[in-house]
Model the fold of this input.
Amino acid sequence: MKALADLYERHNRRVYSVCLSMTRNSAEAEDLTQDVFVHLIRKIGSFRGDSRFSTWLHRLTVNLVLMHFRRKDMRHEEVRDDLEKTTSFWQGQRQPISAQLVDRMSLESALAQLPAGCRSVFILFDIAGYRHDEIASLLNCSSGTSQLHRARVKLRRLLRPANHS
Done:
């Protein structure tokens, strides 16, 4: 137990930082940080020592957050339907909606529509600020930028106002 407490003390801030940078939501980041350390207890036996422990833990954290996004995407379809109903209600009422809130909701909706790989690369590069080689290492993929390019093209198309289609 002491060893686990030591691991938590040494790494909890970094794990939280990664979760926060990927989710942009402090409550989600706190929950995911706890999930990472619960998951760590189960997976510690799979650490082979091929890399530094902090690198392995970082990869475990990123994978857990990405799995969180995938689960969230499955529920997102229901949320999108609710969002469309709410938006049409407000438009029918002709009450103003904050442009910033609408933009954020539109972006979140568009991100949810990206394929998982493209979304992961986009979030890690454009939101979290990772370099291409770091992303390739984290996601075990080539360091090419094709997924990032595809993500940006699809986001532009999804975010383009309807009258410009």
DSSP finds seven helices and no strands in the chain. Residues 98-165 form a domain with the Arc Repressor Mutant, subunit A fold (CATH 1.10.10.10). Residues 49 and 56 are 9 Å apart (CA to CA).
